[in-house]
Amino acid sequence: MSEVIDRPLRDDEKPAASRLRIVDCDVHPSLRSTDDLNEFLPKRWQQHLKEYGSHLRTPYLFTTPYPRSSPLIARRDAWPPTGGPPGSDLTFMQKQHLDPLDVEFGILQVLDLFIFSQQNLEFGAAIQRAINDWQLAFWSHRDPRLKASILVGQDGTDLAIAEIERCAKIGEYIQINVSPRANEPLGRRRYWPIYERAQALDLPLGIHVGGYGGHPPTGGGWPSYYVEEHQSNAHTIAAQLASLVIEGVPERFPKLKIVFIEGGFGWIPSAVWRMDQHFERFRSEVPHLKRKPSEYVRENFWFTTQPIDEPDEARHLRALIEWVGIDRLLFSSDYPHWDFDDPRFAFKTPLTEVERKKIFSTNARAVYKF
């Protein structure tokens, strides 16, 4: 988390990193209300939403476990003066985030809770289709810097494939998003048709933390405190990384690119060391894996930077980055959320200009082909 400055810096105040036009891989747009989707939803589903609302694996609608001090997980200064929730006003986003921070491209990550985990899969597919069209109409077509993602619900695999094909024909989406908290771990074969199409279309698979999936957010059950729950994002991503690797997804789809978003990267070395160690002892159980887990992680996976674990000594962060790999990291701010990382101050460890350019721009350009 970095300090928030609510004005553009003068040129003589800018460190070198801020003069680099950045690719921000985690920008959150929000609906002003579900009425925004009416022009993209068939009448049948508009009426369904009006009469029945959402049927989710989460017990309460339109709620989050986050504290009142940060409603909607947002920065206090990110509430648009025109009304609506943070992230719902493009002009305000441009003025507060895109323009002053020289964001060359921002990848949209839509998080509204009712998108991914609808129990009625046909209704969920209609919502996802509407959200995908809304991203283009309300954001990407109004500001070409903003890039849309294809949101699909992986538990309705056939519906997800149809939506991927529809959006791919439009040709304006840069990745496929699935939820990290589905009914089953993401490595399971039932989800493989989605990965097959992602590889065939050369679209990265984006997996952003969030949602509930009907399960406790930690492997130990439901936590007592917000600060405790916030820790679970890293646990969730680590579990899905293990599932994808050990079930054999990168072995089966060697050209598939998988980007984990908002899970941080401080946990990666120990998780991968453990997988490698266990692979040596139990490799006869998983003969479909031809190489060590670490080799798949270094070839098929990328990680966005926010939230950055910040040890007291800068050299420790430096060592962590080197182990994960400079080429594996993609900068993300998480705008407009409360733990937003300001790109001018995000890395409190020495980086060369070449390394900064990779993390802030060229790595993402290579993955997403800007």
UniProtKB/TrEMBL annotation:
GO terms for molecular function: carboxy-lyase activity; hydrolase activity. It comes from the Bacteria. The keyword Transferase does not apply. Keywords: Hydrolase, Lyase. GO terms for biological process: secondary metabolic process. SUPFAM superfamilies: Metallo-dependent hydrolases. This is Hydrolase. Gene3D superfamilies: Metal-dependent hydrolases. Residues 23-370 form the Amidohydrolase-related domain. One of its GO terms (cellular component) is cytoplasm.
